[in-house]
Predict the 3D structure of the following.
Amino acid sequence: METEGHQIASHTWTHQDLSKVPAYMRRKQLWNLEMALNNIVGKIPTYMRPPYSSCDSACQKDVDDLGYHSISFDVDTDDYNQNNASKIQISKDRFKTNVTTNLANTEKNASLVISHDILEQTAHNLTEYMLSTLTQLGLKAVTVGECLGDPEENWYRQFNGSESDSTSTPSSTAGSAQASSSSSGSAAPEQSASSASSLIQTSNQFAYASFAVLLSILVALAV
Ligand SMILES: [Zn+2]
């Protein structure tokens, strides 16, 4: 997956609502996945998306303390509710409409799109449609890190197996990613997306990020 150019991020160990569990469980949810991922790829991610995109202020602090950038999305394909051959057209329409709308907005010409590769229609139908549509629109699909202008060396960290050491935030992290990780609560999705937009705008490049697809794979591995 990584050698194909995807960015691997965390979606936690067993997909619990991080706003509804105690602090020790939040950390366990992130640490368990770190241990598993380290066994597979020999490093751990800097990026994560909270399950259900739910992370209140206490959760956001724990996520920050563990050195993560929490990421959300601004285009929801709703593929989870459209997983059959006819209904998936609804997700395709949502994708094209919202991406086109964002493209027309000079202050927001990038999108972070969510879909789930564990779904049959997403894996074998919607994804191909999204990529071909982007090409038709003259756009480019990139990873979340690239979308945020965060250098690739910041996308992962070395796993040291020490809980205390894992609380330090990488110092070389891009300012934009820091900004998104420091936002809290329900405001996080908007701020993450807008910081991505402004960066992409300066490089005159449009970004579509399919990180959620990768996160779903991690969930599949974990369960
Ligand atoms: Zn999820």
Remarks:
- The domain at 2-221 is CATH 3.20.20.370 (TIM Barrel).
- The chain has a mean pLDDT of 79.
- The longest helix spans residues 23-41.
- Strands lie at 44-45, 47-48, 69-70, 75-76, 111-114, 156-157, 208-209.
